[in-house]
Hints:
Elements: E1 5-8, E2 11-14, E3 19-22, E4 25-26, H1 31-42, E5 48-49, H2 50-58, H3 65-79, E6 89-92, E7 96-99, E8 113-117, E9 121-122, H4 130-144, E10 150-152, H5 155-158, H6 168-175, E11 179-188, E12 191-200, E13 206-215, H7 219-233, H8 240-245, H9 254-267, H10 274-290, H11 295-311, H12 317-334, H13 339-351, H14 355-368, H15 373-385, H16 393-402, H17 406-422, H18 426-439, H19 445-456, H20 460-473, H21 479-486, H22 490-502
Parallel strand pairs: 8-10, 8-11, 9-11
Antiparallel strand pairs: 1-2, 2-3, 3-4, 5-7, 6-7, 11-12, 12-13
Helix pairs in contact: 1-2, 1-3, 4-7, 4-9, 9-10, 9-11, 10-11, 11-12, 11-13, 12-13, 13-14, 13-15, 14-15, 15-16, 16-17, 17-18, 17-19, 18-19, 19-20, 19-22, 21-22
Amino acid sequence: MSDQRIICGPFAVDVVAKLATKNGEPLPIGHRGVALLSSLFKRPGEVLTKTELMDAAWGGAAIEESNLSVQVAALRKALGPSPTGGEWIVTVPRVGYRFASPAMPSPSGGERASIAVLPFVNLSSDPEQAFFADGLAEEIIIALGKLPGLLVIARNSSFAYRGSDVDVRKVGSDLDVRYVLSGSVRRGGNRLRMSAQLADSESGAHVWAESFDRELADVFAIQDEVTGRIVDALKLKLTPAQTASATDGGTNDIEALDLLMRGRALLNGPTQNLEVYRRVTDLLRRAIARDPSYVDALGELAIAHHLDYLNHWSDDPGRALVEAQRLGTRMIELEPNHAFGHFVVALTAMLARDFERFRKEAAIVIALNPDALIASDLQGHLCLANEVPLEAIPHFERCMRLDPSLGRTLLCLQFLGRAYFYGGRYETAAALFRERILLMPDTDASRGYLAAALGHLGRFEEARQVWAELMAINPEYVMEDRLNRTAVQPSQIELVLGGARKAGLPV
Length: 507
């Protein structure tokens, strides 16, 4: 590859002549398309942020992001399908694009059925029951997420579409899913009225619809019936054990379910701090007191403690990690094939640096349902733990495909940035950390990694400027301490510290 001619697979770009070819034949694209391909070809398999690509094609001019989308759509049409049947240019939701390579296929390749479950409309006279309507929809998301062969969009992304007049075709297009489930709930006294509709997002036509008017105590049977109807409508081929697993971990206690729904709503809410943590743990402990074998409640409580460990909300975050480990172990004692229980154990083992246990539990989660978001998350972290960080990239990208919400994007930008950093791709890592800082201006973690990446790139003055911003945000930040809580292998920790030391930063 030269500065004038860039070759990538069957494609080539002549930068001077502003010409792109496929197998020697000219492609019908303009000079901006050529500029975009040039940038993508220079770093095949690496994510380029939207900002980088717009700067490359429009020279820093202020333009609408939709202009980039139009150019990418035209490029995809001109390039045609890749040998695997996917796109040559892979979308990384909310972040940017990368040019596919055999080592990093499209994260959506080979997927069959896909579904988004919208928040159910609360028709109860009491607006406080909105948490119950949301909770029922979320229970169905969790049940469907246990079924192999089905791609299920995460709650945080599908719940962005709230209201009775949502266009299922737009939801399908936005979230790239074939089916959309919507519904409504009316709870009054001991009665529950619920309707659910499964629609084909391409045509907008209903595939299945049904209404239920039952005693409130029948809510658990209704959840099972809705899940079963969806399995039948989508013609999913499951074993009896796989079908039964969809309802593992639940309860038959209505009040325990109520407490779980309230706690989960807070845990998924926009505010995360010590006060919220205390309220969440109180609600979940009350749910478990009513039903000590309520595995789903044990899992939510474990995640709350996990977040305390990462964020140091309480005075003893180490104790919180131990408690999360205990709860995960209890989950799989009660339900040996509960994927989320094994996920909790894997997650806490990774943080405790027990990599043998982490690998074992992660393998179980992946085997139980390789299509689940938690499986992709663990596959990515397995690649980091096994010190093949660049192989983690498509797995973290798939997490963003399953949950393109801002919260997941912020999390996965950090994971992707670390994967590129540990793989020595400091330029791309720096771009991703900068993107995360734009979306989350008060982040200290991304600034720490960015400063280290700039140190490896020899951009010492920039690194010191970033470090000064970090110190203004969090004067108590100590890089080595933070890395010992969040990085994976000692060699990776040393790589970050080494970049910071090159820039003369105190670590």
